[in-house]
Amino acid sequence: MTVFADTPRWERHGMLWGHLISDASLSELHLVAARGGLHPRSFDLDHYDWPESAREGLEAVGVTFVGNGDLTRRLIASGLRVPAARRAEARRERAERGAVGLGLDHVPEDLVTGLEGHAAPLPPVGEATPGTFRLTRDSPCALVRIEAHDELGRAAAWEFLARADVLSNRATGHSFVGQVLDVPD
Questions:
Q1: Left, alpha or beta for 13 (phi > 0: left; psi -120 to 50: alpha)?
Q2: Are 3 and 21 in contact (CB under 8 A)?
Q3: What InterPro entries does the record tag this protein with (predicted)?
Q4: C or N terminus of the chain, fewer CB within 10 Å?
């Protein structure tokens, strides 16, 4: 069992990002990512996104660095790959599980309960329906980060959080922790 990383070459948030995968299990991947200093939000269904600045930490925990094509081949061979054609469906399934787990009567566009993983990004201004929002809370007492392009989205985010907090408190004894992207019907 080995964890592999490729060369960061994808730009986002003003940084270059690479991918981190396991050839054996997601449990192994999560363990090595945590030991290497990656935030659990960096997980994306079958891999972690990692910023170029994290290389030293990943090297220190024994990650093997390979070329981009080799990384993809190893992920496919592992059986852990979520193919591009199935990623939207996998996100939808995750959202449905999270909504059922919380007891929500509406399944958001994307929902991550807990810290492991991230919801899809907020669509750009010209592509977002009025009222669309993305909300993140990383611990029960953490500040809430709301992304929205309009007041409808900000209001919808606060309404979602109020509902999710009540339901989460009933189920877990603490406020909602997670991330959600929702687009009004």
A1: left
A2: yes
A3: DUF4031
A4: C
106 and 155 part of one domain: yes
Structure tokens at 131: 């009222």
> pTM above 0.85?
yes
What's residue 13's pLDDT? 84
- The pLDDT, as a whole number, for residue 1 is 66
Full domain range(s) for residue 124: 86-182
| Contact present, 10 and 68 (Cβ < 8 Å) | no
Tell me the C-alpha distance between 136 and 142, whole Å.
9
Identity at 27, one-letter amino acid code: S
Regions of the chain with pLDDT less than 70: 1
Q: What is the pLDDT of residue 174?
A: 94
CA dist 126 to 92, 129, 131, 132, 149, Å?
23, 8, 13, 12, 10
| C-alpha span between 5 and 74 (Å, rounded) | 11
